[in-house]
## 1
Amino acid sequence: MPEQLTEDELISRATAVIATVADERTEDVDALLADLTPRDLAVVVYALANTAVETLALLYGHDAESPEGRAAVADQARRLAVRVMADDG
């Protein structure tokens, strides 16, 4: 059974995924995730999603700490997803 990683280690792993993608080394992302348990993978995904929420809030001028701001970010994310799916369509 894989060793349980700490929260700090999982946050570091999420940050490593961001850096790897920014460096356009997408082929290395699998290696960063391969040894994670399903629970740990969920924590990494949550950390990445939370980073996206905070980034969208900053980009669109919403308060990521307030329910209203988070709702506005969720709406913006849905609109972006629809636009991306339409572009891929």
Note: The chain is about 75% helix and 0% strand.
## 2
Amino acid sequence: MTRVEIIELNANLALLGRTRRRIPFLYTPGGPDGAPLVLTAPDRIPANVTLQVMRASTDKRILRGHVSRQPNGLVAFELSADVSQAQAQQFVADLTTGLGGQIEALTRAVVQRSA
């Protein structure tokens, strides 16, 4: 992730619990630089951004969902129910390393599937 993407992610996560109840996210295990990539937006992620990520990513598997903040302050990522177990495990593994050491706050994030 670039510095700008990291700053945008942190800024959008800061909105949780203040002005937004939840925000959308997009994840790929291999972004353009080969490292995991998580993008967020205050309202919705534009289709052209999703397309650019898919074209530039080294790993074409894309996960989408929503991020919220739990009452205890932890960030919670909600995946759709149709996400495979392997994709969910890869996502959890990348979060536990803070996306390769890029964002330490995500090491304590919670991942759950929607019903």
Note: The chain has a mean pLDDT of 88.
## 3
Amino acid sequence: MSETSEFRATFADVRYTSVRFLSEQDTALLERRRDAMSVAQGQLSDIKSVMAERAPQFAPRVEQLERELSAYNTAFDRTMAEFERN
């Protein structure tokens, strides 16, 4: 499986476990989501390194993905904070 395919599959797991956790509040799902997010960030870092070497013209796209991944994680954290307040 290519790096990008692995990243897509991992991030699909992040999204899936995020939604399930928000609806079920199962701490095992939260841990799985955190692990998947960590793996996704590592995979994206690997992709960034490969792209810098082999196809530097795509660097802005990879950097945009990094920003979007970070924004997704921030939005989830904010949602969690709202849940905890209520």
Note: The helical segments are 3-24, 27-54, 59-85.
## 4
Amino acid sequence: MVNKITIYTNGLIRLKKSLDFENILNHGFEFVNSEILLVNKTTETEIEFFEKDGKKLIRIISTIETQSEGTLTYQSTWVDPFFLNLF
């Protein structure tokens, strides 16, 4: 079974760096919507959708609560290949 993140990022390329919300908007992208996936009691993933000229950029933020490390946050940014040189 394919998960939602794989479906959403299909055809996109993962950037080597993460971008914050304001940085994405400053590059001319428009925020479309977001979705929160509750993976389990300790893991939450937010997927933010942006568009520019009909092409997509997706930002994924996962927050994991651990007993030993506290709260861990992981981010990745996925972009249409057309915009790869923009970043």
Note: The two ends are 32 Å apart (CA to CA).
